[in-house]
Design goal:
This protein has about 220 residues and is an alpha/beta fold. It contains eight helices and eight strands; from the N terminus they run βαβαβαβαββαβαβαα. The structure holds D-xylitol-5-phosphate and zinc ion (ZN). The site of zinc ion has 6 residues, from β2.
Protein backbone atom coordinates (compact mmCIF):
# COMPACT_ATOMS: atom_id res chain seq x y z
CA UNK A 1 0.00 0.00 0.00
CA UNK A 2 1.17 3.50 -0.86
CA UNK A 3 1.47 5.98 2.01
CA UNK A 4 0.36 9.57 1.46
CA UNK A 5 2.12 12.43 3.22
CA UNK A 6 0.50 15.81 2.49
CA UNK A 7 2.86 18.80 2.72
CA UNK A 8 1.40 21.77 4.57
CA UNK A 9 4.05 24.15 3.17
CA UNK A 10 1.50 26.37 1.47
CA UNK A 11 -1.12 26.38 4.23
CA UNK A 12 -2.14 29.47 6.19
CA UNK A 13 0.09 29.09 9.26
CA UNK A 14 -2.19 31.31 11.32
CA UNK A 15 -4.55 28.32 11.00
CA UNK A 16 -2.01 25.49 11.06
CA UNK A 17 -4.12 23.36 13.42
CA UNK A 18 -6.98 23.40 10.93
CA UNK A 19 -4.64 22.34 8.11
CA UNK A 20 -3.53 19.35 10.20
CA UNK A 21 -7.10 18.39 11.01
CA UNK A 22 -7.93 18.64 7.30
CA UNK A 23 -5.04 16.28 6.48
CA UNK A 24 -6.13 13.82 9.16
CA UNK A 25 -9.84 13.94 8.30
CA UNK A 26 -9.06 13.13 4.66
CA UNK A 27 -7.33 9.88 5.52
CA UNK A 28 -3.63 10.72 5.00
CA UNK A 29 -0.99 8.54 6.65
CA UNK A 30 1.37 11.26 7.88
CA UNK A 31 2.10 14.98 7.58
CA UNK A 32 5.07 16.27 5.57
CA UNK A 33 6.75 19.31 7.12
CA UNK A 34 9.13 21.24 4.85
CA UNK A 35 11.90 22.97 6.80
CA UNK A 36 13.84 25.47 4.63
CA UNK A 37 16.73 27.61 5.83
CA UNK A 38 17.04 30.14 2.98
CA UNK A 39 20.60 28.91 2.32
CA UNK A 40 20.42 25.26 1.28
CA UNK A 41 17.32 26.25 -0.70
CA UNK A 42 16.34 29.77 -1.75
CA UNK A 43 13.26 29.81 0.48
CA UNK A 44 12.67 30.08 4.22
CA UNK A 45 9.88 28.31 6.09
CA UNK A 46 9.83 27.26 9.76
CA UNK A 47 11.75 25.35 12.39
CA UNK A 48 11.35 23.47 15.70
CA UNK A 49 9.21 26.08 17.56
CA UNK A 50 6.50 26.00 14.87
CA UNK A 51 6.61 22.18 14.71
CA UNK A 52 6.20 22.06 18.51
CA UNK A 53 3.13 24.32 18.25
CA UNK A 54 1.60 22.10 15.56
CA UNK A 55 2.33 18.80 17.37
CA UNK A 56 -0.70 18.71 19.72
CA UNK A 57 -3.17 19.19 16.87
CA UNK A 58 -2.95 15.77 15.20
CA UNK A 59 -2.00 12.22 16.07
CA UNK A 60 -0.53 11.64 12.58
CA UNK A 61 3.24 11.08 12.40
CA UNK A 62 5.33 14.13 11.47
CA UNK A 63 7.55 13.43 8.45
CA UNK A 64 10.08 16.29 8.63
CA UNK A 65 12.05 17.17 5.47
CA UNK A 66 15.14 19.20 6.40
CA UNK A 67 16.18 21.37 3.46
CA UNK A 68 18.95 23.02 5.44
CA UNK A 69 22.68 23.22 6.03
CA UNK A 70 24.14 21.86 9.28
CA UNK A 71 21.05 19.86 10.32
CA UNK A 72 23.17 17.99 12.90
CA UNK A 73 23.09 21.08 15.10
CA UNK A 74 19.31 20.95 15.46
CA UNK A 75 18.50 17.23 15.58
CA UNK A 76 17.68 17.27 19.32
CA UNK A 77 15.49 20.35 18.89
CA UNK A 78 13.51 18.73 16.07
CA UNK A 79 13.16 15.49 18.04
CA UNK A 80 11.92 17.41 21.08
CA UNK A 81 9.48 19.36 18.89
CA UNK A 82 7.80 16.08 17.95
CA UNK A 83 9.32 14.86 14.68
CA UNK A 84 8.65 11.16 14.04
CA UNK A 85 11.05 11.01 11.13
CA UNK A 86 13.92 13.36 10.30
CA UNK A 87 15.02 13.50 6.72
CA UNK A 88 18.39 15.11 5.90
CA UNK A 89 19.74 15.91 2.44
CA UNK A 90 22.76 13.93 1.25
CA UNK A 91 24.02 17.23 -0.21
CA UNK A 92 24.03 19.08 3.13
CA UNK A 93 27.25 19.91 4.96
CA UNK A 94 26.68 17.77 8.09
CA UNK A 95 28.55 14.51 8.67
CA UNK A 96 25.95 12.20 7.12
CA UNK A 97 26.54 8.92 8.97
CA UNK A 98 26.94 10.63 12.34
CA UNK A 99 23.76 12.67 11.83
CA UNK A 100 21.70 9.63 10.81
CA UNK A 101 22.99 7.69 13.83
CA UNK A 102 22.16 10.59 16.12
CA UNK A 103 18.59 10.71 14.77
CA UNK A 104 18.19 6.96 15.42
CA UNK A 105 19.66 7.27 18.93
CA UNK A 106 16.95 9.78 19.82
CA UNK A 107 14.21 7.31 18.89
CA UNK A 108 13.37 9.14 15.65
CA UNK A 109 13.26 7.46 12.24
CA UNK A 110 16.21 8.52 10.04
CA UNK A 111 15.75 9.28 6.34
CA UNK A 112 17.90 10.72 3.56
CA UNK A 113 17.02 12.78 0.48
CA UNK A 114 18.67 13.28 -2.90
CA UNK A 115 18.19 16.30 -5.15
CA UNK A 116 17.58 15.82 -8.90
CA UNK A 117 21.27 16.11 -9.85
CA UNK A 118 22.46 13.53 -7.31
CA UNK A 119 22.71 9.95 -8.59
CA UNK A 120 20.95 7.12 -6.75
CA UNK A 121 24.28 5.35 -6.17
CA UNK A 122 25.44 8.20 -3.88
CA UNK A 123 22.94 7.04 -1.28
CA UNK A 124 23.73 3.29 -1.47
CA UNK A 125 26.31 3.36 1.39
CA UNK A 126 23.74 4.90 3.75
CA UNK A 127 20.87 2.48 3.06
CA UNK A 128 21.54 0.32 6.17
CA UNK A 129 21.24 3.46 8.34
CA UNK A 130 17.86 4.76 7.15
CA UNK A 131 14.19 3.80 7.13
CA UNK A 132 13.40 5.88 4.05
CA UNK A 133 15.04 7.46 1.01
CA UNK A 134 13.39 10.49 -0.59
CA UNK A 135 14.02 11.00 -4.29
CA UNK A 136 13.19 14.64 -5.10
CA UNK A 137 11.11 14.92 -8.27
CA UNK A 138 11.53 18.74 -8.40
CA UNK A 139 14.36 21.05 -7.36
CA UNK A 140 13.63 21.57 -3.66
CA UNK A 141 12.46 24.95 -2.46
CA UNK A 142 8.91 25.54 -3.60
CA UNK A 143 5.57 23.78 -3.87
CA UNK A 144 3.56 23.66 -7.08
CA UNK A 145 6.34 22.67 -9.52
CA UNK A 146 6.09 20.03 -12.28
CA UNK A 147 7.04 16.39 -11.70
CA UNK A 148 10.36 15.29 -13.25
CA UNK A 149 9.59 11.85 -14.70
CA UNK A 150 13.29 11.37 -15.51
CA UNK A 151 13.90 10.81 -11.78
CA UNK A 152 12.04 7.47 -11.90
CA UNK A 153 15.02 5.37 -13.07
CA UNK A 154 16.71 6.44 -9.80
CA UNK A 155 13.78 4.96 -7.89
CA UNK A 156 14.10 1.68 -9.78
CA UNK A 157 17.85 1.55 -9.13
CA UNK A 158 17.29 2.24 -5.44
CA UNK A 159 14.59 -0.41 -5.12
CA UNK A 160 16.94 -2.97 -6.71
CA UNK A 161 19.79 -2.05 -4.37
CA UNK A 162 17.54 -2.10 -1.27
CA UNK A 163 16.41 -5.62 -2.24
CA UNK A 164 19.99 -6.69 -3.04
CA UNK A 165 21.10 -5.57 0.42
CA UNK A 166 18.08 -7.38 1.94
CA UNK A 167 16.83 -4.21 3.63
CA UNK A 168 13.39 -2.85 4.34
CA UNK A 169 13.65 0.81 3.32
CA UNK A 170 10.78 2.94 2.03
CA UNK A 171 11.14 5.08 -1.07
CA UNK A 172 9.38 8.44 -1.06
CA UNK A 173 9.02 10.97 -3.88
CA UNK A 174 8.35 14.67 -3.37
CA UNK A 175 7.42 17.30 -5.92
CA UNK A 176 4.62 17.46 -8.47
CA UNK A 177 2.80 14.37 -7.23
CA UNK A 178 -0.84 14.01 -8.27
CA UNK A 179 -3.15 11.09 -9.16
CA UNK A 180 -1.33 10.54 -12.49
CA UNK A 181 2.29 10.95 -11.44
CA UNK A 182 1.66 8.77 -8.35
CA UNK A 183 0.84 5.88 -10.69
CA UNK A 184 4.19 6.29 -12.46
CA UNK A 185 5.97 6.48 -9.10
CA UNK A 186 4.25 3.33 -7.81
CA UNK A 187 5.31 1.41 -10.93
CA UNK A 188 8.93 2.42 -10.35
CA UNK A 189 8.91 1.15 -6.74
CA UNK A 190 7.80 4.12 -4.62
CA UNK A 191 5.75 3.33 -1.50
CA UNK A 192 5.35 6.83 -0.04
CA UNK A 193 4.33 10.04 -1.80
CA UNK A 194 4.40 13.65 -0.64
CA UNK A 195 1.52 15.72 -1.98
CA UNK A 196 1.26 19.46 -1.59
CA UNK A 197 -0.75 21.38 -4.14
CA UNK A 198 -2.56 18.34 -5.60
CA UNK A 199 -3.99 17.49 -2.16
CA UNK A 200 -4.87 21.00 -1.02
CA UNK A 201 -6.35 22.06 -4.41
CA UNK A 202 -8.42 18.87 -4.76
CA UNK A 203 -12.21 19.10 -4.47
CA UNK A 204 -12.41 15.55 -3.10
CA UNK A 205 -9.14 15.03 -1.21
CA UNK A 206 -10.40 11.96 0.64
CA UNK A 207 -11.10 10.18 -2.65
CA UNK A 208 -7.70 11.22 -3.99
CA UNK A 209 -5.93 9.85 -0.90
CA UNK A 210 -7.84 6.55 -1.10
CA UNK A 211 -7.07 6.19 -4.80
CA UNK A 212 -3.34 6.80 -4.29
CA UNK A 213 -3.17 4.57 -1.20
CA UNK A 214 -4.56 1.72 -3.32
CA UNK A 215 -1.68 1.92 -5.83
C1 LIG B 1 9.49 21.21 -2.28
C2 LIG B 1 8.95 20.55 -1.03
C3 LIG B 1 7.71 19.81 -1.25
C4 LIG B 1 6.51 20.61 -1.71
C5 LIG B 1 5.64 19.69 -2.51
O1 LIG B 1 10.75 21.69 -2.04
O2 LIG B 1 9.93 19.64 -0.51
O3 LIG B 1 7.37 18.99 -0.14
O4 LIG B 1 5.78 21.18 -0.67
O5 LIG B 1 4.63 20.42 -3.11
P1 LIG B 1 3.93 19.94 -4.47
O6 LIG B 1 3.26 18.62 -4.20
O7 LIG B 1 2.98 21.06 -4.75
O8 LIG B 1 5.01 19.82 -5.51
ZN1 LIG C 1 9.33 18.16 1.03
Amino acid sequence: MMKVSPSILTCDFAHGAEALQFVEKNGADMVHLDVMDGIFVPNLSFGPPVIACLRPHTTLPFDVHLMMQKPHRLIEAFAKAGADSLNIHLECDSPIQETLEKIRSLGVSPAITIKPNTPASAVFPYLPLVDMVLVMTVEPGFGGQSFMADMLPKVTALRQEIDRQGLSVSIQVDGGINAETAVMAAKAGVDNVVMGSAFFNETYPQALVKQVQAL
